[in-house]
Here is the input.
Amino acid sequence: MRLDDLEEVLTIERASFPHPWSRQAFVYELRENRVARLWVVRAEAEAKAPVVGYLCLWFIADEVHVTNFAVHPTHRHRGVGRHLLGSLLGLYRQEGALRAALEVRPSNEHARRLYEAFGFRQVELRKGYYFDTGEDAVLMEASLAPGSEVGDSGRTSGRAGGNPGAG
Ligand SMILES: CC(C)(COP(=O)(O)OP(=O)(O)OC[C@H]1O[C@@H](n2cnc3c(N)ncnc32)[C@H](O)[C@@H]1OP(=O)(O)O)[C@@H](O)C(=O)NCCC(=O)NCCS
Here is the structure.
């Protein structure tokens, strides 16, 4: 993800979450936060193709923590999210990550199913985690250690257009 991508990213963000990240939040992650890695996926491989999804994470020591993840509403259920998540888990695994973690709303069944397909399992319920609704968060973790199931996800192949674009 680059600053130039932010208009498109913010459109997806606002269509995806009741309390979206602000522009400043993305800018901070892009410019200041040294552990942040932000990726977009485009509709096609060309650099100017529209952004259809993004995934933000922190890579700290041997852990990847997913901080934001969304696909444009018109591009959902086509494997874009699966492709993006699978590609990035594979990439950071190669770079030495041994585990991945994220928080998800208990009501977000679509996302939870996707995470479970990559080996994420609930490890904790964080009470009142979401300030907007007071909803609890499910903390999910997956092992990326050699031999764990995440790396075998052949389900990512050939189901989404374009590769995650570096930024
Ligand atoms: C969660 C989210 C990122 C998933 O992205 P996505 O691109 O829709 O996900 P995928 O299509 O890769 O997900 C897999 C689902 O689509 C189905 N699918 C994948 N490829 C498909 C295809 N070619 N045709 C039809 N269905 C397909 C899968 O079977 C799976 O279905 P399931 O939910 O019944 O298991 C997206 O729904 C989103 O942006 N949600 C709003 C924001 C959000 O909740 N983010 C997560 C916060 S924790």
Notes: The chain has one domain: 3-151. The mean pLDDT is 89.
